Request: fold
Amino acid sequence: MQDNQNKRELNALIEQRSAIVTTLRDGMSQTIVGQRHLVDALIIGLLADGHILLEGVPGLAKTLAIKTLSSLIDADFSRIQFTPDLLPADVVGTQIYSQSREAFEVRKGPVFAHFVLADEINRAPAKVQSALLEAMQERQVTIGDQTFALPSPFLVMATQNPIEQEGTYPLPEAQTDRFMLKVKLDYPEQDEETQIIKAHLDGRFETAKTLPVAGAADIVDARDAVKQIYVDERICRYVADLVFATRNPERYDLPDLTPMIAYGGSPRASINLALAARAAAFMAGRGFVVPDDVRGVVHDVLRHRIGLSYEAEANGLTTDDIIDALTAKVKVP
Reply:
């Protein structure tokens, strides 16, 4: 009897708090045409407290989508344009000597915001990229001998262009592993692109203004509700099987994939897959996770956590191809 009452209370809480999902989707649609997967991925990252890496050719509204989401939430937003001459201090901040006080004082960098857009993150060298590591993982920044906590919520949303290699610095594995999701964007459908053209010709995008529809406290409340969503033991086992299959595909009757994988997902991949699936269940208005929630986010969570061998690259195999093979073979509970 008590369990039924708890379920009813949880369902009522999910129904109440998940209304923010519809509100954010409607707000995003004011400036973003189509790209439903991109919009949902941004909201999942927001709800699951996970950072997001967007990859796509120029002109697919990566930066616009992130700026629109940030404008819908009444919170601090900063944009860092990554360039080859950027320094770590330009990101996290530095110590500056004050002549009037005759002492060093800390000047905080743009990373001290609720939402940080790292635009074209692969254009800055590794020492600048690594300046974000502590902030992304531990939600804090050390400047000199002082450590400062970052605001809550804190979310890094980065973009990168996959087709330009000149003047870029590939993200190291330790950096990409900090991103919960890596979302690959494709071109819009023809009818969607027609809508985009008409909207620009009519000047609709120029006059459209996205006003805040939620505050930082609303996001924290929604995250608290996400944390209460039930994840069954069988779902946990399914998540572990999917990630374990990236390390030992031969144990799942996929011996042909063994020479194609240089390394598989770490335990952080399993954790992020479960967290993202729980956020997906919240977006669906459910108080429990089902296998389709896991399958819906598995590509975004795992595609940047699987290393391809030279043989796989020679055969034109992608990490998405490997994930497709794994999801087709791993037993669904």
